[in-house]
What we know:
Blueprint: H1 14-24, E1 47-52, H2 67-78, H3 91-94, E2 97-102, H4 111-128, E3 132-137, H5 144-154, E4 158-162, H6 186-192, E5 202-206, E6 219-222, H7 223-226, H8 231-242, E7 246-252, H9 274-283, E8 288-295, H10 306-329
Helix pairs in contact: 2-10, 4-5, 8-9, 9-10
Amino acid sequence: MSNSLLNSDTVPPATMVLDLLEKSLPFAGIASFMNLPYTRNLQGADLVIAGVPFDGGTFYRPGARFGPRAIREQSVYASEFQPVYPWDYSLTERFTLIDFGDIAPLPASGGMELMLELTEAVAQDVFKAGAGLLTLGGDHTIPYGPIRAAAKHHGKLALIHLDAHQDSIGSDQIAPGSRFINHGTFASDLVTEGCIDPVHSSQVYIRTHMPPVPGDGYQIFYANEALQFLPEVLAETIKARVGNMPVYLTLDIDALDPSFAPGTGTPVPGGPTSADVRRFLKALDGLNIVAADIVEVSPVYDPSQTTAITAAFLAIDLLYLLGSAYKNRS
């Protein structure tokens, strides 16, 4: 008598067995984020994940265009055991999540403008559908479109910005009379445009000096200062500054010390551990986070997929924050 599953009268047909195995094995199947349904249909979605494989705004080491694919691949592994520690419920049991796929402009002349236009348009559609948005980058020019769309839909935003860099150069400061948008300009430009209220915003784990934003600037927690606090205490300080405002949370993977996230274009030593950042994010629960991103994952510099695995867990943490905020708004 054969011991094959397929020869047993009590076992489902081969296609059902294959579907079950594909969903349970992190190395099998075609990887959407967390093995979620891949669809452009936003109807009924609570939380939407979209990739932006674009690194045309990078100054130093390119390669972040491959970030969304790497994060998706590792998200299947990161979400294998539910609920995802340290959270106490499964996202897919409480919310309807979809993987929207990629917003992928051509890496050619005009690519930057097309990326900004397309990401804003998709984000507008997501917010009109009543959903929260998580964007997978790509470099740190990615927030322009989603933040502009979120500000139009939700009003002026508080920004929580985890990064080794302030990204506050300002695109008009590079060459007078011209705008040169890149991955170091969004934090200044979007204040000038009126999308972000810096008085209620914070930049965390900063390890470089850049020009301040116009007017009353962000509250900056440089790494040496931030690391003196427990992550939960740091989070409570930032939550008090945000208040009840709608929040956009942007997480540059180089906010982490490069020993924990080497696969990035502009690594800076002296940052937090992956445990520090996960504890910090968990403690932000309760804020009205309407959209978030994780950016600057560059697999070409990523030994043993360390950065992509870490980014996948952090992206899931961001989804929990978005889900909690979605539930509170509903």
